[in-house]
Amino acid sequence: MAVRTGEQYLEGIRDGREVWLDGKRVDDVTTHPKLARMARTMASVYDLQHDPALRDKMTFTSPSSGEPVALSYIVPRSQDDLMRRKRALEIIAGSVNGMLGRTPDYVNICIVAARQMAHVYGRNDSRFGDNMVAYHEYVRENDLCITHTFGHPQVDRSVAVSELADPYIALGIVDTSSEGVIVRGAKLLATLAPFSDEIFAPVYRPLREDAPEDEPYCIGFSIPVNTPGLKFICRQAYDGGKSLYDYPLSGQFDEMDCLATFDNVLIPWDRVFSYRDVPLGNEAVRKVTLWRGYMQQVAVKNQAKLELILGMLHQISDGIGISRFDQVREKVSEVIDILATNNAFLRAAEADAEPVDGGMGEGIWLASEPLMAMRHWYPDAYQRVTQIIQQLCAGGLMLTPSEADINGPLSADIEKFYQGATLQARDRIRLFRLAWDLIGTEFGSRQTLYERYFNGDVVQLRQRRFASYDYSRADAALASFFDRM
Ligand SMILES: Cc1cc2nc3c(=O)[nH]c(=O)nc-3n(C[C@H](O)[C@H](O)[C@H](O)COP(=O)(O)OP(=O)(O)OC[C@H]3O[C@@H](n4cnc5c(N)ncnc54)[C@H](O)[C@@H]3O)c2cc1C
């Protein structure tokens, strides 16, 4: 199958999957009142690949079928490949203004990066490396949408997963058969799960090599989301079905986050990538740095989102006559700097792209240093952006009557009291409702939380950075300074 249309994508996710929301099982995620608009947004992303003006920019020729397939599935081998992939990412991020972290390209690129490192998965048993390569080809040829889950339930972080009161809180192996591995337990978080075709659950958290009881937790795999025994428990939905004028973001982009629970779920052998080999699993955690692929999507998404925010702040500043104040200009400039810094990190990572695993892997991926610095910097930078929005909008964030008010009996009052220096009331309120949906609503708060945590916990990432950094140049610089004295 070549690239899918939005309608084919929607048809694919009407598959009996077990999604739970508000205490009820969802019959059909494409028609559920709190999920349907997001499903349609995702369908619109799939439709882009069929736009005659975009098709060639978003696809490449499959090396196996000769069909056009999504560029996010390309194994990059040159700068040209990386730049082609980036242009496709830009089209998608632009179409949703960076408001979805998980357009399908994000995990698609994870799968590419995992395939590029298939030799690690296959080191001690070639089947597992072969499975990874075959899986990449399968999802590429079927243009599938994937969610991923890396973590264990947040029950007690002070003990190892095998030490939790119930051995199947964290996902672990129950049994094996000729068909595959049976697993039980839970994984978090599965963003986009109700709208995905597959769930990818690699080994991505280290286990203790000297503790045999940790071995059953060493299992990496991918399966369809409608596999029997697999359930997704949604957080509260943020799309309340209100008009897009009132909730311009919540009403379109609630990508949903779920806990994935597995109740004796069978993982077929050809979908297993890691199995009970803790030293190798830990090596995969260290070396299969999926972010050296997907951070290209992240930075492109950041760019699209920051451009929308900048446009909004620019119009608000002019609209309510505050752009002449120096401190306002300084704050808007700070957002410009954050945007430019994001883009510079990405350009540096692209320009210094390297052969995967020093040439042991397949193709190239982005340079790690700029990406790592960006990964550690961006959560605080984004939080600063949200503070600036709050500081510049101030009480205006509360001057946000609904569309019904604007069209109601008080419309003349609203026109008079809610106007701006250069804006009619309807346009001014629309801008401030956008700002509120970005930082103040449940959707907006989740956006801020997402930017802080989706890419891992910076506290722990920096601890790892401290422990693994090569200090030789820094130490030599200090030694030479003292030598010269
Ligand atoms: C909106 C959103 C979407 C997400 N989507 C996905 C997804 O699609 N797929 C996925 O796999 N994950 C996803 N995540 C999960 C994300 O990867 C985790 O939130 C992140 O790795 C932090 O883990 P945690 O939430 O379990 O926090 P915890 O690890 O429980 O940390 C809680 C607090 O304890 C501190 N802490 C914990 N352990 C230590 C330690 N050893 N040393 C020092 N401090 C410690 C942390 O710094 C933090 O302050 C998402 C998260 C969010 C918020």
Q: Would you write up a description of this structure?
A:
The chain has 485 residues and is α+β, with helices and mostly antiparallel strands. The protein is 47% helix and 14% strand. It has helices at residues 6-12, 36-48, 55-58, 79-95, 105-116, 118-121, 126-142, 278-287, 291-319, 326-351, 368-393, 403-406, 411-417, 425-439, 442-453, 458-468, 472-484; strands at residues 18-21, 24-25, 59-61, 68-70, 146-148, 172-176, 180-191, 198-201, 219-224, 230-234, 257-268, 272-275, 354-355, 364-365. Strand 13 and strand 14 form a beta hairpin. Helix 11 crosses helix 14 and helix 11 (368-393) packs antiparallel against helix 15 (442-453). The chain has three domains: 6-142, 4-hydroxybutyryl-coa dehydratase, domain 1 (Orthogonal Bundle); 146-287, Butyryl-CoA Dehydrogenase, subunit A, domain 2; 291-475, Butyryl-CoA Dehydrogenase, subunit A, domain 3, CATH 1.20.140.10. A six-stranded mixed sheet has the order 2-1-10-11-7-6, with no helix packed on it. Bound molecules: flavin-adenine dinucleotide.
